[in-house]
Amino acid sequence: MLEIITFSTLNGVLYGMVLFMLASGLTLIFSMMGVLNFAHASFYMLGAYFGFEISRRIGFWPALIVAPILVGIVGALVERFGLRRVHKFGHVPELLFTFGLAFVIEEVVQMIWGKLPVDYRVPPSLDFTAFRLFDTTYPAYKMFMLAIAIGMFVALLVVLNKTRVGLIIQASLTHPNTVAMLGHDVPTIFMAVFGAGSALAGLAGVIAGPAFVTQPAMAALLGPILFVVIVVGGLGSLGGAFAASLLIGLVQTFAVAINGSLADIFGASAADWFGDLGTVTVAQIAPIIPYFLLVLVLIIKPTGLFGTRET
Amino acid sequence: MSALGKIAPWIILAILLAVAPLVFTSGTSRTMLSIMALSIIFALSYNMLLGQTGLLSFGHAVYYGLGGFVAIHAMNTVIRNKYAIPLPVIPLIGGAAGLFFGIVFGSVSTRRAGTVFSMISLGLGELVASSALILRTFFGGEEGITTNRSRLAPFFGYKFGPQIEVYYLIACWCFVCILLMYAITRTPFGRMCNAVRENPERAEFVGYSARMVRFIAFSLAGLFAGIAGGLAALNFEIMNTQSIGAVQSGLVLLMTFVGGAGVFFGPIIGAVLITFLQITLSDVTGAWQLYFGLMFILVVMYSPGGIAGWLALHEPLYRGRQLGRLIPAYLINAVPLVVMIVGGILLIELADWILVKAETEGPGMSVFGIVMNSNSIVPWIIAIILFFGGAFALRATWPRVQDAWGVALARLREQPA
């Protein structure tokens, strides 16, 4: 029991931190530009595929640096030549643009790397056991992922709170017009934040690729969860995104570990009363728990856990 | 407008619906026409949200799919118990299911418009789609639920076995639904939907609850989506969980937006075009979904009003008899545009072939019936020249369109009102 709790907590925090690497960028982009970037999870997928391709040719460590930069460049180009053009039509076309972009990226990835998962493996230098607890081993690579995610979190905090750039970004979150009037080039800030957010998503992809599965559907699988995270946390709130990432990471990981069903609690007759619901295990409903949480939060507190703005 | 002018479009629509299967007589084209007709209902129901009320939903297939599943279970129940309920009534059951779920989910999701609404609709869509995979008894797991429409009680002697009979059944429903949805846009409620879309705050000051207006619009959209789902159930005789999922929701968004959300008849164009492309393109090219995505992005970037919005721009010119001024400019621009598109298609097809198909089928391929070798550099160079040459030429010729528009608009202003 203790074993399950320990490892589920570790895995849950890890999954939550990966979610936050994506959610932080998405929240920053949303707060500044008012655009919910549907293609954000696609940049995560691009990161994983770029990481796979580069580590196959050069090595994992260069990939860890180069792939996020490449993804960031792709993101900046998308903002400069796509989003900026659509911006004048309003928010709905912007959302739709990123929606179409997510679709196109998935198709292009499928075309280049095929429909099946690619063989993106943990690099040999990290492929060993970190520690052993009650007969179960924990891979070092996951500790490495956790370290990267926490490192990124700290770096983000420092940049946002201690540097001039962070000050301008924070100001543009709430008062973009005032920032523009103070003489800052807001479109360029937008492009930079969009690129940086994409690069963060790309970094998450590079490190998550070997641990999870690198496949063309990975963006479509993670994307909706990501939206749940930022809506549950409160749109535009970085702290909320952090809390919601951890919450959903932990809830989903723990749910997967629980193999009970209503039939176990009420006896076999539960199947007669509840139909399919009686025999479904908690582990099987793990994928839909985030969406339940979303609906629940929106009914009780429509602004999300820490949010202040409604749209 | 005269009474005849008001009725004429409906007579033309009825004639089109009636004559279409007599012109296109092959089995595939009649199946396609049936899918088009039910897609029209689905897309128009979606536009009650997107176009009329300004609600961008990412989970509209939920009501279509649930309507379809309830309808297919209703059909099976009718068959099992030998009730005297004929097939044409079945879509009503689908519609009732769509309305019911529209009311249930609408009460949660229509509190807010804008991005929050979109996100809730996405979450609800994922919730229902994932639940559908778990609840195997109702949704039939991966195989889905099947039925046999010809085993229901005959309707005036018709058993709806042949596709042509089903087509006319769907076409009748299609006509009635288009008429009803158009009528709704002309009621005070329909106008309030537009008001809530444009400015919810002012709508509230006039004395309407924006939330209530959104809720009613959402429920009604669920009703019509459910009818479309019921028609899909009796047309395909099978429903599976794909019809509930994100892909279906994306498809109806694509239809509505490409057709044009701002004009009532826009989604009709979109439904016909996208259904046609979906069925024909998938036979022609492996990269058809990429074309769909690119088409969507291009429409969002260059013509956010969709095809119908672009056509509607020309209406005042047509009335003022100035449309002729645009034709030479359009013709000149059409040449580089077509060249660019051909180059783009050639590039995508070459890339698709060399990346996906060359391993199993060798380098020999054909585009537009022209045989070429994807390993040779020649077709690539031609494709690049066509694409970029067309793009640069288009940039050079584009000012002509702007000039022609300017002249036409100026002439229009000189005319007495």
Q: How would you describe this protein?
A:
The complex is a heterodimer of chains A (311) and B (417). Chain A has a single domain, classed as ABC transporter involved in vitamin B12 uptake, BtuC (Orthogonal Bundle). Chain A is built from 15 helices and two strands. Chain A has helices at residues 2-33, 40-57, 60-87, 91-113, 140-162, 164-174, 176-181, 186-211, 218-233, 238-257, 262-266, 270-274, 276-279, 282-285, 289-300; strands at residues 129-133, 136-139. Chain A has a two-stranded antiparallel sheet. In chain A, a hairpin with a 2-residue loop joins strand 1 (129-133) and strand 2 (136-139). Chain B has 417 residues and is mainly alpha-helical. In chain B, strand 3 (364-367) and strand 4 (370-373) form a beta hairpin. Chain B is built from 17 helices and four strands. Chain B has two domains: 3-289, ABC transporter involved in vitamin B12 uptake, BtuC (Orthogonal Bundle); 315-414, no CATH class. Chain B has helices at 3-23, 27-53, 61-81, 90-109, 114-134, 136-139, 163-186, 188-198, 200-206, 210-236, 246-259, 266-284, 288-302, 306-313, 315-319, 326-361, 378-414, and strands at 145-146, 238-239, 364-367, 370-373. A two-stranded antiparallel sheet of chain B has the order 1-2. In chain B, strands 3-4 form a two-stranded antiparallel ribbon. The chains are: A mainly alpha (311), B mainly alpha (417). The interface between A and B is large, with 45 and 45 residues.
